[in-house]
Design brief:
The complex is a heterodimer. By secondary structure, chain A is an all-alpha fold. Chain A has helices spanning 9-40, 47-65, 69-90, 100-122, 148-170, 172-182, 184-189, 194-216, 226-241, 246-266, 274-285, and strands at 138-140, 145-147. In chain A, helix 1 runs parallel beside helix 5 and helix 5 packs across helix 6 (172-182). Chain A starts with 8 loop residues before the first helix and ends in a 10-residue tail after the last helix. In chain B, a hairpin with a 2-residue loop joins strand 4 (70-76) and strand 5. Chain B starts with a helix and ends with a helix. The chains are: A mainly alpha, B alpha/beta. At the A-B interface, helix 6 and helix 7 of A face helix 3 of B.
């Protein structure tokens, strides 16, 4: 078997694959955060908790209603998105005219409450969730073994990210969103119901987190703290990509996942901090982020 | 009706498209409009003249519902606008061009032009709009804010002509523009009047206003204090200059 830079290819490509999977989750979550921040000016700290709720919703649907993975992939984002709409209507709506800090504190508090409720019921241990039967097994690529389910996660999240990007950048609805991000008052004065658009955008962003949660359920265990672990890294990704940049969050998400994977191969000791080191460097050199617009 | 309204109300009363009565408005704690009365007949071009801070822009924003803290009455074609959110007001057939023009940087010229949804049938076709503003057609795919100031002003006006709005509220469309562009905007407004649009124009430049408007309302300290028909303007030049402090 050949080697690259003294690294066996199984290890190298294995880590790249893991990085790609992590990157898929970073991209989906930071995309939702970017969309929400753009229009609502809210730094949605509850995002990780809602990702977890998405995974648990899939688990509940299976346990209590017998609805399997594919049904959950459709239903969980809708249910969690509807929950997001309730949060927006009852709580976030009152914060738009205040400093970012209030939205951050409220959603951080919400995240703690939601995680606390789930921990109280389920403890900290995870619930298993099986890979759907059609995606079991994998492909032997010669230099590595690629599990089908992980390939599906990469494809599904890439598809979801690109579809979101397309809607925002290339459609009429997207032009409303971009315009309302710049000047919501004027967009409303043209006859567009901006408050409803804001509400649905939060619902969509949160639904995207739930979609990621369902994709994650068969890979990681469904546990109350699965989102808390992830969200800190995702915020670093958002800062690196540039707060509010759609394409930036997608590219940065996938790239940083792979960078993290490669770090595990070449210098494993740094793998847990590499993203934060990159964040610090980006903040020093380009405070608005790699794809961010300076205000 | 207040005394001021009675004094200022011309013969258009019966078929007024827009009738503002005793309008008060607030920016936070500060009380900016103190009982504004005026009206516009269908098909008229009317200006609000006055010094900086007289409340002209606030009046437009109150009509449009952008300023929510308002009292009194604003009737548009028989519908009371006080209490309605701005999106509902726009849907009744009002088009707004803000002072700062409000061209969106993240949208192309074409996207800016197509952004406001159609609120009623009967708006101008894109062909007619390109004929009015030929520069826009040539720059459709540029970023909206890459246009010159004059082109941005034209885009800001052009985009509300498509929507079927019948009453156009224009806030200082000539501000900061070169004389040749100001003339072009004047010609455009006259053409829009011929097409049947009703226009409420806020202006500081009364030389410009005098060339296009039927009547002028003078605002001072958050009230309408006088009304001049365009025909009387030269006879009342001294009064007008006293009002405007020029």
């Amino acid at each position: 078997m050949f080697e690259l830079l003294g690294i066996p290819p199984q290890a190298l490509f294995g880590q790249i694959m893991l990085g790609l999977i992590n990157g898929a989750f970073y991209a989906m979550l930071s995309l939702g955060l970017a969309v929400i921040f753009g229009l609502l000016n809210i730094i949605n700290f509850a995002h990780g908790a809602l990702y977890m709720v998405g995974a648990f919703t899939a688990w509940f649907l299976l346990q209590y209603l017998g609805i399997g993975y594919w049904g959950a992939l459709l239903l969980a984002p809708i249910l969690v998105g509807a929950f997001g709409v309730v949060i927006e209507r009852t709580m976030l709506r009152h914060l738009y005219k205040l400093d970012h800090l209030y939205g951050l504190l409220l959603t951080f508090g919400l995240a703690l409450v939601i995680q606390g409720l789930f921990q109280n019921k389920f403890g900290s241990s995870g619930q298993p969730y099986a890979i759907p039967s059609v995606l079991q097994g994998g492909q032997n690529l010669g230099f590595m073994f690629f599990p089908n389910y992980r390939a599906w996660v990469v494809v599904a999240s890439l598809g979801m990210c690109l579809a979101t990007w397309y809607v925002i950048e290339r459609t009429k609805l997207g032009s409303y969103l971009r315009a309302a991000t710049e000047n919501p008052t004027l967009v409303q004065a043209f006859g567009i119901n901006v408050p409803r658009m804001i509400m649905l955008t939060y619902g969509f962003g949160v639904g995207l987190a739930a979609f990621a949660g369902v994709l994650a359920a068969p890979i990681y265990q469904v546990s109350p703290l699965m989102g808390a672990d992830l969200i800190i890294v995702v915020f670093a990704v958002v800062v690196i990509g540039g707060m509010g940049s759609i394409l930036g969050s997608i590219i940065t998400g996938f790239t940083l996942g792979i960078v993290e994977g490669l770090t595990k191969v070449f210098y494993p000791e740094a793998s847990n901090i590499v993203i934060f080191v990159i964040m610090a460097i980006v903040l020093l050199l380009k405070p608005a982020g790699l794809f961010g617009r300076t205000a | 009706m207040t005394d001021a309204a009675a004094r200022l109300t011309p013969e258009v009363e019966a078929d007024a498209l827009l009738a503002v009565r005793g309008l008060h408005a607030w920016y936070g704690e500060s009380h900016v409009l103190h009982g504004v009365d005026f009206e516009i007949g269908s098909g008229e071009v009317v200006t609000l003249l006055g010094r900086n801070g007289a409340g002209k822009t606030t009046t437009l924003k109150s009509i449009m519902g952008i300023i929510d803290a308002r009292k009194g009455s604003i009737r548009f074609d028989g519908t009371e606008l006080i209490g309605l959110p701005s999106n509902r007001i726009a849907r009744l057939g009002l088009g707004f061009v803000p002072e700062e023009r409000g061209i969106f940087a993240s949208l192309s010229v074409e996207e800016n032009l197509l952004l406001p949804p159609e609120v009623r049938p009967g708006g101008l076709s894109l062909e007619t709009i390109y004929e009015l503003f030929p520069n826009l057609r040539e720059r459709l795919y540029s970023q909206g804010t890459k246009l010159s100031g004059g082109e941005q002003q034209m885009l800001a006006i052009a985009r509300i002509l498509r929507t079927g709005a019948r009453l156009l509220l224009l806030d200082e469309p000539t501000e900061g523009l070169a004389p040749v562009i100001v003339q072009q905007i004047g010609r455009t407004i006259r053409r829009l009047k011929e097409q049947g649009f009703t226009i409420l124009l806020v202006e500081q430049n009364f030389h410009f206003a005098a060339t296009i408007a039927d009547r002028h309302y003078i605002m001072e300290h958050g009230r309408v204090v006088d009304m001049m028909a365009d025909a009387d303007l030269s006879a009342r030049q001294a009064e007008l200059q006293a009002y405007l402090g020029v």
